[in-house]
Amino acid sequence: MKASIVAGALATGAAAQSGAWGQCGGQGWSGAKTCISGYTCTFVNDWYSQCLPGAAAPVTTTAKPTTTAQPTTLVTSKTSSPPAATTSAVANGKFKWFGFSESGAEFGQDTYPGLWGKHFIFPDNNAIQTLINQGYNTFRVDFAMERLSPSSLTGSFDSAYLKNLTQSINYITNAGAYAVLDPHNYGRYFGNIITDVNAFGTWWTNLAKLFASNSRVVFDTNNEYNTMPQDLVLQLNQAAINGIRSAGATSQYIFVEGNSWTGAWTWNVTNNNLAALTDSQNKIVYQMHQYLDSDGSGTSPNCVSTEIGVQRIVGATKWLRDNGKVGILGEFAGGPNSVCETAIKGLLDHLKANSDVWQGALWWAAGPWWGDYMYSFEPPSGTAYQYYNNLLRSYQ
Ligand SMILES: *[C@@H]1O[C@H](CO)[C@@H](O)[C@H](O)[C@H]1NC(C)=O
Ligand SMILES: *[C@@H]1O[C@H](CO)[C@@H](O)[C@H](O)[C@H]1NC(C)=O
Q1: Which residue in 85, 61, 51 sits closest to 12, CA to CA?
Q2: How far is the centre of ligand 2, averaged over its atoms, from the C-alpha of 289 (Å)?
Q3: Which of 147, 210, 203, 177 minimizes the C-alpha distance to 366?
Q4: Which segments constitute the CBM1 domain (predicted)?
Q5: What would the pLDDT profile of 92-106 be if each residue is shown by its tens digit?
Q6: Cα–Cα distance between 114 and 120 in angstroms, integer?
Q7: Contact, 10 vs 261, CB < 8 A?
Q8: Whether 106 is catalytic
Q9: Are 47 and 3 in contact (CB under 8 A)?
């Protein structure tokens, strides 16, 4: 999900009051542009917002990102006809990975390091176990590089944050599921685009060393690179891969992500150069994200049409196959309504029908602090958990 750290990089200086544009979601979201009593809107931008407990947290002033930052140029693609061949899907393959992003440890992105329980939280193991018992097997654990590495990319890790993160990861993998380590950083560190490729590789070496013996861990190089040089995205991904392998972590899969928020709908335009990534273990999986609202941002509960799921993904399917790659849809979601439900079904049917290249999908998002957020898959009361669990389980 596109979130606050992006705004830090794109800020133009224009202050936006909390809720002035976009709704404040997250814990305590009342469904309107304010948080429920006892919660404060700590962040809001075009895509994402967070209510956190308490009243003391400052309201962040952020700027609305420029429209060019969003892949609006491809919005017109929604008007093209859906490819007929892909709609008669057969659920012919079992997803290797099927589950959720677990959001929480990356919350409070305007407050570093912030306080556990106030600005950020780790996933709820009971909730994860509930989802594992229902057959889901992959949990992408979001965290903030600034909290793990407070001094520099090559500096030592914060032991308390690392301990909690490790406990989450180990809980998941001990339960037999995959845990995806997701630095939810948009190719940025303290708001600045990461340009020190070697330091980024070292950061990954240092982290991968700690998980080198756990083959159920997956390394996700970074969440949603965006608005940065395309060659840099290639270099950062390659440095991460090389750094991970040099740490002796050779059994794990590596999820790479692309520029333009790793959007599937723009992948065949923006991310062609990433076909050149290499891995000595040949375990690269291309992670793409796709939302189905009009601007593809995942901020509206409305989906463009019942066919939009397939329409936005077919180009990526072709790209993967043409290039001999495999992929995972690492974020997707839709609002709780029948148009989105049909669009999501079409999307998942398409992924299954093309299981030679699509290895799985992860819903955005579960996590303990989502409150009434429209996409919340946190059991037992998350809006999407209640609306979509039966549908998603039928695709396991
Ligand atoms: C780690 O989790 C414990 C609760 O299990 C909490 O008391 C502590 O503050 C957390 N620390 C960090 C840095 O997350
Ligand atoms: C690129 O992907 C989009 C979205 O799936 C699709 O509409 C378009 O036809 C693709 N273009 C090519 C050349 O494959």
Answers
A1: 61
A2: 15
A3: 177
A4: 16-52
A5: 578 999 999 999 999
A6: 7
A7: no
A8: no
A9: yes
